[in-house]
């Protein structure tokens, strides 16, 4: 997908007032993958760093129009119930249960 025409990378949530939009080539050199993929964004001694880190963990790949089904090779879900739901929708590719990839509201 990254080589598709018009793809843009947002270094944080695309709706953020502080977002920077990058080409895939620029993103490869400018994104801090360790921060984006970190398990936690908390920085108890530095509130500004925590806000920044939390924002960076919401980086996005923006694909214009749509993603063709044949380009979806796997999906990640937070639970076995959702895995079963995705299967009932006819998805026949790899489904990985990984709750760590999802925000858990109320915890």
Automatic annotation (TrEMBL):
Keyword DNA-binding in record: yes
Domain DarT: 1-107
Classification via Pfam families: DarT
GO molecular function: DNA binding; glycosyltransferase activity; nucleotidyltransferase activity
Keyword list, A-Z: DNA-binding, Glycosyltransferase, Nucleotidyltransferase, Toxin-antitoxin system, Transferase
Top-rank taxon, per record: Archaea
Protein name, per record: DarT domain-containing protein
